[in-house]
Amino acid sequence: MGANLVNLNVNPCKMCMPMGAVSAFYGLKGCMTILHGSQGCATYIRRHMATHYNEPVDVASSSLTEEGTVFGGETNLIRGIENLISLYSPEIIGVATTCLAETIGEDVGAIIRKFYDAHPDAKVKIINASSAGYAGTQYEGFFRVLRAVVEQTPMDTNPSQSVNIIAPMLSPADFRQLKKLLESMGLSYILLPDLSENLDGIHEKHYKRIKSGGTPLGEIARMAGAKYTIELSRFISEDDSPAQYLNEQFGVPFERLAMPAGIRDTDALIEKLVELGGRKTPELMRERGRYIDAMIDSHKYCALGRAAVFGEPDFVYSVIRLCCENGVIPVLAATGSVCPALRPALEEEIRKCADRQLVEKTVILDDCDFDMIESVSRELGVNVMIGSSDGRRAAHRLGVDLVRCAFPIHDRVGGQRVRMIGYGGSLNLLDQIANILLGNQEERFRGEIYDSFFETARHTGQAKKPEGTLQTIAQRTASHPCYTCGGGKYARMHLPVAPKCNIQCNYCVRKYDCPNESRPGVTTQVLTPEEALEKYKLVKKQVENLTVIGIAGPGDALANFEQTRDTLRLIREYDPDVTFCLSTNGLMLPLYAQELVDLGVSHVTVTINAVDVEIGAKIYKYVDYMGTRYTGVAAASILLGNQLAGLRYLTEHGIICKVNTVVLRGINEEHIEEVIKKVRDLGAYISNIMQMIPVAGSAFENMELVSNREISEIRNKCSVDLKQMYHCRQCRADAIGTLDNDVSIEFRGGCGTGEEQAALPVKKYAVASKSGMLVDQHFGHADTFYIYESDGTTARFVEKRQVNHYCTGKEDCLDDKQSKMDLILSTVADCSGVLALRIGNAPLEKLESKGIKAVTTYDRIENAVKQAASQ
Q: Which pLDDT value is given to residue 576?
């Protein structure tokens, strides 16, 4: 369940094809529909249609079981038809297949013939349509049924003066508007289908199982003798086109027009109807004039619009053209259907519209989902979305309003009464768009200006600085060493005020009282907020380039939020100009994100190792959340959901976010590109892909490490999507100074006087060790070296190198044919010394020839490294 919640991906019009099929059948008079497939599919369709139309929707099902799916569902379908006749006495039964029946190639036509053979007195007309749920969208399903209806209805070819109007999936209100238009123009017409009453009925004392509206079968039969067909669709295929069939079989001429939305496409329909014998009424012309007046009234607000339009191809095409003629720039046009014709139909239209307002980039997408729509919308600066209510989650995350005017609308009432065609419907849609843009100007833009320049900050008691709100990200990150290439000239100070952690990573052991080890989570002591303030005052006097205060443990900053909050408040009162930064696993971000904003935290690092909960379950032993301990996929799901929600909230509120990812061989190294793309879409500024530091006692202490070369390759791949950090030192929880010069030892309790002390140069040492604790392995036997840095006073672990994988990334990397000794020498080539239990004469000479000092000893690694460095 957690994975589904996190990775939910809904295509904007990929409601299954049977959804459109059922909708079309509902536009026939006296029709009942049966789905030849699973009961679950019928339930799904009933729920979606009922919540959109707020009407009871009866859909029967042949309820195929496993046996029926494998051996055929003929018996189920015949029994289902018999039940429909017995319960409803319909004039028509529509049979729509689903993916279950389609997968086994069920011959529904033959089954229907068997039904008639067994029931010779049956008067009902049965029409079947292939509507496999996996083969298309509701758009194709709707027209496929209309085509099946005209193909399977016995036709009356006697000529008439009627005009066939074949309509797409409009709202009942739009169907009523279309009928009103045709009747006002004095035309004899046949409308297929007619949803005006069946899915938006009146209140009646007694419930009718079959609604009285819809197009009668007798009217459909007369379509073959009509003088003309107008099909309101630009993109439906010829194979699914009823107009194409009527032309090929009965010679009825036809023309395809766009849905009549906006001034141009409504005019085009009116002119065609006049050509066919209709007349323009004064009321129709007044309605047109009223719409033009509304266009003039709203143009100054529409110019602010940067719209994302999504839905079925005909809907997208018509709304895009309405936007363009009103000055709204449709920067994104998107459909879930496979519709390659959409781009050439709209490209020039959108480009001309965008050029008028100097908008450089616009995008047209087909066969896309909401993840893509949301990502592109964020990139393009969309400020209004137009489509169905399935886009509401994306709109919420983007912080924009959604105009709901397409099927389905689940989160509002009145989906059946939405109008968007004709002059009146176009005016209604235009008003909604203009009012959203006007509201943005009045509420958001002016509100942001007020907040930026005049609102008093909650906790500092000082007015916000106008210049701070106008800084670019480059300016805001310039004084933070972790966000600038190479670390820069500025120093940071980590305050270890947060000892507790609420998750257990399999690569972590929370032992933080080590004075000589350098890795995240290590400190010599934990400070109270008051002690942290005093230490900051001391360090600030001696480290003049100190610009950043960070809280990075030794546990999690938000698992100890009271201490974290009090520390930040105390220091802000002392130094209003300091930059605040903290690191977190993200579990509690949704709870505390707004408080971080209020406290003036400007930079946050979130460690996200996976965006797949199955992978996450392998990384985290447990998660403690709201008083309950979770394990496995449940733990990973809770953590991931909170990480992503928190990251999005922070970035949307102006916090600059870095995402740390630890590379774990055999678990997530192939998954990291997906992680980076996801956090990029959520607004992360930079990514830090790190090597795991093996810690004795952790579940992963013996895990084979990913080499530096492999990490470099991962970073290079990911740099296409997101800026990469190459200079991380994986600092202690009490680190002080620049990234290249940690002077924290000079300020540790019991480890210095607080005065500047002379130090030996920092050098790098390679240690041959089996245990990771002792120098206890022969140099020539080593497959792994522990790399440390030391100035003779302290020893800092840097990384773990595996001989058969290590490479510096330069052109002189060794190939697989070279000897193991050459590989070992290459592995330690950048070190000043090598420590091993034993070293043979030949390798000793080679090491000395390269200027590498060899030391043989048996001792704890930290002691041996410090001793070697001090010599």
A: 84
